[in-house]
Amino acid sequence: MLAYWNSGGQDLLMTKDRVRVHLTHRILWAAAAALLLFVSVYPVSAQQRSVGSVTGLPVPRFVTIQSDEVNVRTGPGIRYPVDWVYVRASLPVEVIGEFDNWRKIRDEEGTEGWVHRSMLSGRRSVIVTGEVRPMRRSPDRSAPVVAHMEPGVLASLDVCREAWCEIEVSGLTGWVEAGHVWGADPVSTRQ
After folding, report:
1. Are the C-beta atoms of 164 and 130 separated by less than 8 Å?
2. Which residue(s) pair with 3 in the sheet?
3. What are the φ and ψ backbone dihedral angles of 87, each rounded to 5 degrees?
4. What pLDDT is attached to residue 162?
5. CA 182 to chain centre
């Protein structure tokens, strides 16, 4: 059986998965946040893996947005202005820094900001990237296709093995090549 999903209907008053918040003093706040970040957080590239100074968990690591409305701030605290608002629960993001109860995250498009740890979940999901991608019955390019998924479709991540990830979309389970989704790092499991 072939199924076909799209990501339509999930975007509210936006073009992607976030809404831009316009602030008049954004430049001043951004400069202050940059100074604080330079002093308090050592940047880690995606190829390097270290341990978070607060949680002891790997950094970077993948987690998901917990609710349909999550403020992303320019710095780690409520005194910093809201720069983005994510409006799509279960969206995968990458934790790239930690400060107290705040996590610096990066999304699929490379946008970075700070969210409170309570707004993140250890549940794993991935987002389909590129073009329409096949979900297969087993982790093999010759396996039967279970579904075709459009870019932007969110899937629950079960496990990744080598170049394949087992995912679930709308009750249908199958395998997708790891390079066809974003958020598939088998190491990370918690926030």
Report:
1. no
2. 147
3. -125, 35
4. 84
5. 8
Non-local (6+) Cβ contacts of 152 within 8 A are 6, 7, 10, 127, 128
Question: Quick one: which H or E segment has residue 88?
Answer: none
User: Quick count: other Cβ atoms within 10 Å of Cβ 85?
Assistant: 15
CA proximity to 132, closest of 145, 118, 114, 116: 145
Cβ neighbours of 182 (radius 10 Å): 20
Q: What is the model's pLDDT at position 105?
A: 98
Provide the whole-model pTM. 0.73
Average pLDDT over residues 38-44: 40
Closest CA to 113 of 75, 63, 146, 56: 75
At 132 the pLDDT is 98
Query: How many CB atoms neighbour CB 25 within 10 A?
Result: 9
The pLDDT tens digits for 130-145 are: 999 999 999 999 999 9
Distance CA(159)–CA(40), nearest Å, equals 34
- For every residue of 136-155, DSSP letters joined together read ESSSSTTSPEEEEE-TT-EE
